[in-house]
Amino acid sequence: MRWENLTEGSAGPAALFGAGAVVTRTFDTPEFRGITFHEVRARSIVNRVPGASRMPFEWTVNPYRGCSHACVYCFARKTHSYLDLDTGIGFDSQIVVKTNAPELLRRELGSPRWTGAHIAMGTNVDCYQRAEGRYRLMPGIIEALRDRANPFSILTKGTLILRDLPLLQEAAEVTEVGISVSVGFTDTGLWRTVEPGTPSPAARLGAVRALTDAGIGCGVLMAPVIPFLGDSPEQLRATVRAVAEAGATSVTPLVLHLRPGAREWFTVWLGAHHPHLVPRYERMYAGGSYAPTWYQRRITRQVHELAAEFGIGPARRGEARTIVTPERPDGSAPAEATQLSLL
């Protein structure tokens, strides 16, 4: 890995990390066995999404690179190649940790140039993957967003988000907070092979129920819907029914897409586990990273019809809220409160 190309003083692209800022660690514990952590001091943490992106948001925060969830289809695998890391096993086991993410975010949110735009998290790799249990970056990140009443959303497969439920409740009192849990299917056999490092679908749906019961509306991103493996009418019905029973505010299907980096790794997995499907996938994805439009529309229609049948309604947008500033250590009240308009 050529870290020197990404640090201050390099002759390469714009520096991502401070000079001499990389510390590599391994931990001999069962949950981290085989995983290497590269602790870095990032130079920035709020990232603008490229204008050509399909994503419905403009700014993201990603405290980690690489992901121990080890989802064989993960579109973010390609990003590991930017660090000269392998997009297969390396993506699953070489985790970059931006240890200064909370303090850096607080500083960037306080900049006069920052306008309070929505920040999305979990859109590249999961911010509640196993590493978060050790590094605990998300509490500081949520606190910074709460204190600035800055709207944000989190997408996760990690049940560790429940650890931060009190902070999420506090943030929801002052700004718009959107939580989505990713559950593409409820088939446990499929889960064990394609998402081996994640909590089970049942555990994730349990987190949806816990968030909802705590007053935090939670939607489900039904992703990915995997062609020929998780897309039968019976499978779709079972998943949407389980999502409804978990109390989700909404369900949004997303068909598997196979970008470069993920495509190669998924194809290897498919050839090992379902070789008879390789020709069908070659035909379906012959046009690029996405399944044909007709197929995506069919899945969307089926899921929406099932959602209506099981009574899953649309998520409601939040409203502008008042920043509640904690009392000073001497017990005195703050000088004033401010308000951030979200809509």
Produce the secondary structure layout.
Elements: E1 23-26, E2 36-40, E3 46-48, E4 59-61, E5 64-65, H1 89-93, E6 94-98, H2 101-109, E7 119-121, H3 131-135, H4 138-147, E8 152-156, H5 165-172, E9 177-182, H6 188-194, H7 201-213, E10 218-225, H8 233-245, E11 251-255, H9 262-273, H10 278-284, H11 293-310, E12 321-322, E13 339-340
Parallel strand pairs: 2-6, 4-7, 7-8, 8-9, 9-10, 10-11
Antiparallel strand pairs: 1-2, 3-4, 5-6, 12-13
Helix pairs in contact: 2-4, 4-5, 8-11
What descriptive keywords fit this protein?
343 residues, alpha/beta, 7-stranded mixed β-sheet, 4-stranded mixed β-sheet, 13 strands, 31% helix, globular
Can you give me a brief rundown of this structure?
This protein has eleven helices and 13 strands. It has helices at residues 89-93, 101-109, 131-135, 138-147, 165-172, 188-194, 201-213, 233-245, 262-273, 278-284, 293-310, and strands spanning 23-26, 36-40, 46-48, 59-61, 64-65, 94-98, 119-121, 152-156, 177-182, 218-225, 251-255, 321-322, 339-340.
Written description of the protein model:
This protein is of the alpha/beta class and 343 residues long. It has helices at residues 89-93, 101-109, 131-135, 138-147, 165-172, 188-194, 201-213, 233-245, 262-273, 278-284, 293-310, and strands at residues 23-26, 36-40, 46-48, 59-61, 64-65, 94-98, 119-121, 152-156, 177-182, 218-225, 251-255, 321-322, 339-340. Strand 10, helix 8 (233-245) and strand 11 form a beta-alpha-beta unit. The longest helix has 18 residues, at 293-310. Mean pLDDT is 87; it is low at 1-15 and 315-343.
